Amino acid sequence: MKSNTPSSESSFSSNDTERERNSRRHDRIILGIDPGTNLLGYGLIAAEGQQVELLAMGAIDLRKVKDVYLKLGRIYERMIALIEEFHPDELAVEAPFFGKNVQSMLKLGRAQGVVIAAAIARHIPICEYAPTQIKQTITGTGAASKEQVARLLQRLLKLSDEGLPPFLDATDAVAAAYCHHVATSRKGVKGQVAMLRDERSNKRKKTASWADFVQDNLQRVHR
After folding, report:
1. Pair 54, 157: CB distance under 8 Å
2. From start to end of 38-181, where are the E strands?
3. What is the pLDDT of residues 148-185, one digit of tens each?
4. Which domain holds residue 119?
């Protein structure tokens, strides 16, 4: 279904051509999606062992599309186009947040359903992750803000400030893909994320409490 209704997209992609991407060896390519009917974020990462490379990320801006079914059609078209361009091996999609109101849940559920339908049509395995699980994986806390998630991803993927998209829906989608990578990979990848989190925590934690010192140095305490 082709729609003439205006929509726009903000995106970033590597400079590699499709032929160059296909010739490079990757264990797998993961497509992450942050569903929405106004802004839908997507992110693609390629993993080779513990190394992760960002292939593309962006947000489909559907705010000017008034008809809900045209929105869904546009989402399906763009999903199929991304699948055909990057040939992802797996899809990681953020599950709707249950704290939202009923109408918001319905809209997110529709968008998520269209995304899943596109993946099923191309025989791509699908995994869902709760927003809190994604945030926990990237930042160490399920209550992290979108900005905190974006900054941690910037460090993990070695992105410049210019490489960050204007819409945080895109980095949320990359976070979903990275969460799936960590959840299904060897412990080494989890160690990389933990190392960054520990580094940040150590910078913030200037002094430890006496109780913490005692707990960490039981052999030095004489009773």
Report:
1. yes
2. 39-48, 51-61, 90-94, 126-129
3. 999 999 999 999 888 788 899 999 999 999 999 999 98
4. 24-192
Residue 101 domain-assigned (yes or no): yes
Is 202 a domain residue? no
Helix axes 146-156, 168-183, angle to 10 degrees: 60
Q: Does any domain span residue 116?
A: yes
In this prediction the pTM is: 0.76
What positions carry a catalytic annotation?
A: 34, 94, 169
**What's the CA gap between 85 and 87, in Å, rounded?**
6
First to last CA, the chain: 77
| Three-state secondary-structure class, residue 153 | helix
Q: Can you give the CATH number for the domain in which 134 is found? A: 3.30.420.10
Tokens 């941690």 locate to: 152
Instruction: Tell me the two tokens of residue 26.
Output: 């990757």
Dump strand ranges (E) for the chain: 8-13, 28-34, 39-48, 51-61, 90-94, 126-129
Per-residue pLDDT tens for 72-108? Answer: 999 999 999 999 999 999 999 999 876 667 888 888 9
Q: Is residue 103 situated within a structural domain?
A: yes
- Which amino acid type is present at position 55? L
Number of domains in the chain: 1
